[in-house]
Amino acid sequence: MSWPLPASAEVPTPGRGEPARTYAGQMHLTSTTVSVGGSQLQALTSDGDPARTFVLVHGLGVASTYFEPLAEALGRAGRLVLLNLPGFGPTPEPDRALRISQFAAMARTAAAELGVRDAVWIGHSMGAQVVVEAAAQEPGLTRRMALLSPVVDVLHRRTRTLVRQFLQSAAHEPPASAAASVRAFLSCGPRWMVETFPAMLDYPIEDRIAVTTAEVLLVAGEHDLMAPRRWLETLAERAGGPARVAVVPGAHQAMHSHADEVAELIVGPFDPEAGVATPDDAESGRGVDGGPRIDGGLPSAWSVLRSPRSVWVAAKDWTVALRDQFLSLRARDDGTPGAPGTCTGPAVVLIPGILENPRYLLPLQQWLTAQGHTVHQVPALGWNLRGLSASVTRGLDALEQLGVTDAVVVAHSKGGLIGKAMLLHPRSQGALTGMVTVATPFSGSQLWNRVQRTFLLRRSPLGLFHPEHPELAALIAEREVNSRIVSLSPAFDQMIPGGSHLDGATNVRLDVKGHFRPVSDPSVWEIIHGHVHRLAENAAAPQTVTQS
């Protein structure tokens, strides 16, 4: 996505409440100008699911364009509303300085005019103050706020100190983020920044956050001297609602330099009991689980590569994968069921992940068979290197040949994507009732984001896992079968940094770490077994039809 408009693009000047269509790469943005009390505010709105809306409020001296990387990540999960406060970006400067309370009132008015309801409000730096004030002014405005590098630390409310901290933090910013800051500052101009600075410096965010009731996610970079961890924890303690603190790589502009990690935290389920997440917590699995993932609680690729502990966990997990692959190649079992056990459960269809042969899940198959289940392999999938459509066709053909009825899919990794696609297909009716899957990248994987965009990898079997792959994007959009899926997410997954959260499904966080180890762990087998039975019971339960 490239935010600067093409040279040939014509951008009409929007009038009061008059939308104009602009373009940012492939993202369509509708520009609307809202006038309140003689000042103007611009709102840029993307196409997307209005049921999941993100309102983004920029900080001092910048504009909504500074949200480009974060907006690109969040735009895959829902609708975006990017605000340009008065005097910033394309909006004209008011004839007088504004207080944070006035910025907040204008932001609320703009959101109301755009029909924004129950959105996640995201503010960076001074924008965090605006978001907190808006939530304090209007209880019920939002159920969740994401405050990124919130300012100003109550212990350092002095101009000289704040400027020094900003410059020291800037030394840790990558060139791209620093350049974006310079461009934004130049577009704003020094006069309006100087006039607005006192309002930011004096705003009592620690008092106003106490009167809010929304969930609060507080995020800052580990080198951000303006928003240190101590200050985040202070705000979390003062917050009127449940609060969560996360420290990510980067400095004050971490939302720009490490946008994927920040987006994962914003999109993921909220867990105020999870403790403080830090870049070194990847191995422990701490963080916010889930993601449209972009599923935020599992570690980012940066954390996987940075933390020695997480590298060690990943190495052990790969050892398990190689061991299981070797044993599966030596196995002589033909996949036929053995002696039934004591339970009378549904048939099970096993679908391994990519580069996992049909016997890779043989230990799990033998254990389920011992419990009394009839278990089917799908040899037609081979090493699972085909595209999604071809895999679904082969899988359904195999089920019809086997005469499978009312079975539950048990899958691993890519196998879960195939299983969901099979559940969506009309041919699966009567054959499949649901699915339990382990470590499945339902929202794709950003582990090798830049590499995944290369020509060769996009056209390889691994290209499917990029969130922008057409087949995966289409599968993400389909939600009608999600309620029949149980997604088991490892405590740490080096292959899926965004996690395995699936909206509308039953999401379970495992204690086991690693992408491969869970499918060979007997404690996970027990969890799978229990959910297989629950899915079968739910499918067998009589459906109540209400007539009007």
Automatic annotation (TrEMBL):
Positions of region (Disordered): 275-294
Name of protein: AB hydrolase-1 domain-containing protein
Sequence ranges assigned to domain AB hydrolase-1 in this UniProt record: 54-264
InterPro entries for this protein: AB_hydrolase_1 (IPR000073), AB_hydrolase_fold (IPR029058), AB_hydrolase_sf (IPR050266)
Coiled-coil parts of chain: none
A Pfam family reported for this protein in Swiss-Prot or TrEMBL: Abhydrolase_6
